[in-house]
Fold:
Amino acid sequence: MELSRPSRLGRRAFSALAGTTVLGLALGGSVSSAALPYSAGPGPVPTGPPPGPPGADGRRHRVALDRHSLLVDGRRLALWSGELHPFRLPSPSLWRDVLQKMRAYGHNAVSVRLAWNQHSPAPGTYDFTGVRDLGLFLRTAAECALYVVVHPGPYIGAGVDAGGLPGWLTAVGAGDRSTDPVYLRHADEWLRRVDAIVARHQFTRGTGTVLLYRADVPGRAGLDRLRARLRADGIEVPLLHPGSPLAWEEPERTRDAAEARRLHLDRLARGSTLHNVRMAFGGTSWGWLPAPSAPSPTYDPTAAIDEARRPTEKLAPLHQLGHLLRHVPDFTRMSEAPAVRAADARIRVRHLANPDTGAHAYVLRNDSAADVTSTLPMGGTDVEVTVPARDAKLLATGLRLGAGRRLAYATVQPMLTTSVGKLDVAAFVGRAGEMAHLVVDCPDEPWPTRLDEEAAWAFDQGRLHVSVPLKEDRLTRVRVRSGETDRTLLLLLADDAASLRLWPYETPSGRILVRGPELLREAALDGATVRLTGDTVDERELEVWAPPGITDVTWNGARVQSGLGRALSLMTVWPLPGVPGLVLPALEGWRRRPENFEAEPGYGDEGWTVADRRTSHSTTPVPDGHPVLFADDYGFHYGDVWYRARLTGASGLTSVSLAYRTGAGGLLMAWLDGEPLGTHRPGRGPDDGGGTWAATADFRLPEGLRASLRERRGEGTSPVLAVLVRRTQHGQDAYRAARGLVSARFEGASPDVSWRIMGAAAPDPVRGPLNHGGLYGERHGWHLPGHDDGAWEPGSPAAAGDGDRRQGVTWYRTTFRLDVPPETDASVGLALGGAPGRDVRVQVFLNGWNMGAHAGGAPRTLVLPNGILRTRAAANTLALAVLADGDTPPGTGPVRLELLGSAAGGVPVEPVASPGRRRG
Structure:
């Protein structure tokens, strides 16, 4: 059930609730009377400064809401959340990296979904350690001064196998996310385990920054039951659900910066103050994590921060809007105002106003294919504005700029207003190439000073007019003084690129503003020194606006020479250094070994599970007269599955038909007495609507094999049919649909058939249940760093030629060493160069971790996250498992390491444990 639907309260009833502060119970989430968010008093809460950055400060806090916004300790808070899935970044050290970036780029909250299947390999078994350490993530978010919105499901969607439900749930008779008692019993246990951790990190208790709780709520009865569940578990922060007075804004993904701007400004125009960007960081669907709807290892390639942890071009509007909501409190209580129309009807206008401050906002949207220039009445003046094609703009009037000065109007968007000592700073942003016009109402005649050559100004009838042509990656500064006040106004005008190097930061000792580096992670005031931590890519000048008395600057622990500039800032004498060049090693010394021992008739399968069940909890019917062959029924929920069948009385056999079901990218390979019958892939058409592809593989036996079966008549030996199924993922909305073989049909003979099945071994405690599969090499540790491959033959995946064609699995291994300097954060990927015409399946293992699958012969780059990737003077083991159909050489084309991005800075990275060595 989607949790972002608007409230169904009637307008009159809703307005009655909104007249005064509504307790958190209106969110359905204040589940403990001892922890109800307190009312801020009679009447609406006025607009004012937002609450300070959150942290685990040991003090009780109050959380409430009215129809305008959340209220934290009686102050209005516009929530600007970004979604991050910790399970898609399997390196806890890098959680801090991404969380710090999110905060720097304007987010004040992180929304996290928790995948049940990541933590529970079997009923009653739960693991919150290592890359699954929820407590560590919540502590890190608090240390990064971010609120947390927790969504533990049980169902989370999110492009995850079965929507996050564990594989074992398919085999215990639990109904589909309903009031089924079996499902509820297991779901309650999951929530109880999660809540025990979340309760210790609630913002209301002062022990963390968990601010809101979301959950999968099946109907009104389910909501009442969930409230009782949370009350019993000690959850006291508000619960978000479809009937919440403040709707959880979770817009669809956007493709580019213009679409992101249109979408989020549209939400703002409707008065929303509870925003979520999905995704702020997409990450990687490694191992067997992805659902059929998201078969690529890259999850949301349009995310503002890509899976290599680099900013994308879509980030600028989100950065600007996040800081606007944080630093311009007028936007926490905006209501619809009388309609305003542009002269050109192609520009649609939404007009909002804040009754407390007198500020107005105008959201302009242009859905046409051409840039539109028109006039718009703002602040009593018809102002000429331009909105680019299929883009949007936010303009404002009446914003307070300090010392009695107010914004009359501007043709560019406000980004922030802040005060640093006796300096009032206002930043505005627009597109490069645009002429920015800014008009300020001044109570007395100003003394403007142009600090950069682009700016021009004039003063007329109490208004200061400033014009600036916005240039690419250029900040223009204008200083405004007067004889009637000792406060100085500094106007900053930037294009999108320059805005991404403008960093406001709140310290316990005062606010600062930093310009220049690619990222500001942390700032602290220490006596007369401001200590800054961050990243640079290119050489950058550093400019800091800090409180009085600050005379020195350090950057990443080193003092930098600086002096006082004309903009009343500390300016470095020399630029900050950029990141040094980095050369990655070539991947050489490959060794290879084929497997498929399971296909041989003499292979010992005595330890395999006998597949003889007659009933199943799957929604897929069991064919009459056939045993259950579904992999989930025998405990094999992820990865590849092998079947072996002994056929008694098969001497006249002419063909075999195998019905099977997989998710996206599945396939089937079959052998009879070690002779390949062929490879089959599900059709490339649509699935059944639930993420399942059903197919039947028809194999006619070669004449030589048929003759061999006839010759064996009476020998008392039974031929062996071996089948490898790449079963892939469970559907999100039909997770109980079968995976693996469904049935087998034979022509020319009616043999008695006895089946055995083998899949992944029990998950190790390091990688968890979704990171291992049933290939022979996986079961015997061929992918692990400690495996002895000395007896393997030399051979590269790039050199596999026509003479190597064979059906089945071929493994390749090599090692490489990285020595990235400690002060450099390098993001490295594995580039599979592609092999045109080769329809192969490639599984990539790094230091024992399954980093994802690649299907087909197109080029592909998989991100290798630091932590799993050893970057500091350390060796790494890379293994590839290549599945080829016999008509295709078992290779990948060129394979190389690729530098996806690097910066001088980063965070300390602890190595992620590798799974232990297995013998075999």
About this structure: The first strand starts at residue 63 and ends at 65.
